[in-house]
Design a protein that fits this description.
The protein contains 1 helix and 5 strands, in the order E-E-E-E-H-E. By secondary structure, the protein is an alpha+beta fold.
């Protein structure tokens, strides 16, 4: 479970910032220029499933924002 913000950085300089908002989470996807290209709202179960999928397929290290 995420209590604070989390930022995931990609190899091409893009990032995904995960921010709690009430009972849901906002995922802000930004390109290398820092421009927001997408915003996604997820509940806790969906976010947990996303992290499990990422953990299974990557060597991502989570960084608290």
């Amino acid at each position: 479970m995420i209590n604070g913000g989390t930022t995931i950085h990609t190899a091409d300089g893009s990032s995904v910032n995960v921010t709690p908002r009430g009972l849901e989470y906002d995922l802000h996807v930004r390109n290398a220029k820092g421009e927001t290209v997408a915003t996604v709202v997820m509940n806790q179960d969906d976010l947990d499933a996303l992290y499990e999928e990422l953990d299974a397929h990557t060597t991502v290290e989570w960084e608290a924002a």
